[in-house]
Amino acid sequence: MGQPWFQIEHLVHSHGLVGLSANFTLYGDMSSRLMSLIAGYGHRTEVYSIDEAFCDLSGIPGDMTQRGFKIRARIERWLGLQCGIGIGATKTIAKLANHVSKDAERKPGSYPPELAQVCNLAALSPPDLQEIMRATAVGDVWGVGRRIGEQLTKLGVATALDLAQMDAGAVRRRWSVVLERTVLELQGTPCIALEDAPGAKKQIAVTRSFGNPVESLDGLLGAVSDFAARAGEKLRKQGSFAGQLHVFAHTSPFRPPPHFSRSVVVPLRKPTADSRSLVEAACAGIRFIFEPGHQIQKAGVILLDLAPSSLHQGELELEESDSSDKSILMTTVDSLNRKYGRGAVSVGGAGFGPKKEWAPRQMRLTPHYTTRLEDIPVARA
């Protein structure tokens, strides 16, 4: 995971490795289809990530394990996707069950084979559930990060069962309320509610590794301008303003020196979601940190200090300003881009054009099977 392609490219010939460029349009469309299928099997659904969701099955009669197999079969038949399904009394146990459903199939002997593909830990007896927790490393528990996992292991808390048997109050005092909730959830007490709508992000980031190294300031300005405009679109979508903008750039750690890695946080005069202000701030930050003579491989923009757009900061008008409502302009830009495709309307200088030196090469891009008419597969007898 995360290994550079050039280090494993030789496996194409020796082991038949298949390498593909990221196709985010295809992934997003397949994710939407997946979530719509899952939503039909429960009261409520929380989309946790692009490929994962929680579904509320409380009060639904019948065998939940068989229901899980029906969901899995429909997803595979309608979308051609395989998945693991975990069922539990709490979200943490359901995540544990999902982990078991995958490892029981992929790693024979790690868990009982009857728990493969669909694992219903709610149907197990307490002793059997304890055996599953005993076979699970503490680091594989949802909510236990690498650093905390190492601390727990040093204290002799090596398995999920060890963690579940800890005193919740002591865990809170030693670590945090977050880990305390994990312990209580493993004990069967629901502490993490199902979220019908995802909460607003506390940070919004748009970062990219370049298809070709960028050495010029103009090329770097075009890249971060594009990133800032994209971040602004995401910011407006969740109805927030940003108070600060973090911009960074660095060379590849896998290339010979000289290496370069710098960043800067640019405070905005007042919170905004206007792409023009964000692009201006990103360009100012890049001009401040740029040094010639380096092959920049990656750059990015991160919006910080986010707050709801309904909160307005009052200030004295000490300079001439355009009294027009800038939100109308940004709303129009977003509407046009949704209708005619991303990038149809952009901030001037935001890296637009058919050939960007910093754009991903995507030489192994798969077709847009589900969103582009000319890419729809055609079956012939």
Describe the structure concisely.
The chain has helices at residues 5-8, 11-14, 24-39, 64-79, 91-106, 126-134, 146-154, 160-164, 168-174, 177-186, 217-237, 275-289, 326-340, and strands at residues 45-49, 52-55, 85-87, 118-120, 204-214, 240-251, 261-272, 296-308. With 381 residues, it is an alpha+beta fold. Residues 1-145 form the UmuC domain.
What does this structure look like?
The structure is a single chain. The protein has 381 residues and is an alpha+beta fold. It has helices spanning 5-8, 11-14, 24-39, 64-79, 91-106, 126-134, 146-154, 160-164, 168-174, 177-186, 217-237, 275-289, 326-340, and strands spanning 45-49, 52-55, 85-87, 118-120, 204-214, 240-251, 261-272, 296-308. A four-stranded antiparallel β-sheet has the order 5-8-6-7, with helices on one face. Strands 1-2 form a two-stranded antiparallel sheet. Strands 3-4 form a two-stranded parallel sheet. The longest helix has 21 residues, at 217-237.
Topology:
Elements: H1 5-8, H2 11-14, H3 24-39, E1 45-49, E2 52-55, H4 64-79, E3 85-87, H5 91-106, E4 118-120, H6 126-134, H7 146-154, H8 160-164, H9 168-174, H10 177-186, E5 204-214, H11 217-237, E6 240-251, E7 261-272, H12 275-289, E8 296-308, H13 326-340
Parallel strand pairs: 3-4
Antiparallel strand pairs: 1-2, 5-8, 6-7, 6-8
Pfam families: DUF4113, IMS, IMS_C, IMS_HHH
Organism: Hydrogenophaga defluvii
Family: Belongs to the DNA polymerase type-Y family.
